[in-house]
Please model this.
Amino acid sequence: MLINGQPYPLDESRLLSELLTEAGYHPDRVAVILGGRVVPRTDWETTAIRADDCLEVIAFVGGG
Amino acid sequence: MEITVNGRRVNTDSLRAGELAGELAGQERVILLRRGFALEETAELAPGDELQMIPKDRLPGRLELEAMLTARHTPGTQACFKAGRVAVAGLGGLGSHIALALARSGVGSLLLADFDVVDASNLNRQAYFVSHLGQPKAPAMAELIRDVNPYVETQALTLRLDRHNIPHTLKGWPIIVEAFDRPDCKAELVNTALAAFPQCRVVCASGLADMGSANLIRTRRLTSRLYLCGDEVSGAREGRGLMAPRVMICAGHQANMVLRLLLEMHEA
Model:
């Protein structure tokens, strides 16, 4: 699978919530785009990510 | 010749803009605009010209001001801006400049939300003045907007937006601008608003601190309903401050994307 265009090793499908933590993101600072839409946070624990998925993870940085 | 001035037909013998100004306004200083552009006094007039005449030294009335905005802007844009309703969430460095840019453009209705109070450390990059120190930002911004365009409807909310109050506070606002400071608050607004409102569009920001090139700040369309402005990496932290120009550039990107959306221009 790809995260932000970079290959990410995934042997078997994984829940989005687990994947984010495993890949080193702060889950409370991101928005996740899959299939052209932002995945609602309430769906993170039920959304399975498969080897052919392309995720875009927007990791917000501070300042405003 | 017959021309139109502020929507009214005028028969005039004046051949140049300066003469016409004298004929119509007497001693009052005015500016004459034709197709979005200010005319020199020596500019020649032509039959059928559609001109706007705006007083320079007093606040124009609502219709005059609207005519001025219409005249100064790209033709055809003003009606869309005037019909626009935009919620600006956060009124710090980003939001204060975004709200002012939208007000200057004549966006009809703005929701202004921030929990915070103007303090001296804000003045390096936020749109406030010394006279606002100690005031809550939302009413201070509404006051600034009144000084720019008193005909913009503003709703000032002193409130910390979060996942619990966003669904009812921002309900019915078709365009939401995320202009918060903290990364978790940014993510919370984007995620909550997109999930709660199936039609709304969100313009958010990430990466505007420090002294990197202005050219690294850009707008990206992430989904059909989400736009992101910033360089996406330059977070504010110790040793990496927030300075007015890059903050304003990013705010300009966000405000411009909002205006584009009001014109149904969907590409970044």
User: Anything to note?
Assistant: Chain B has a mean pLDDT of 94. The two ends of chain B are 45 Å apart (CA to CA).
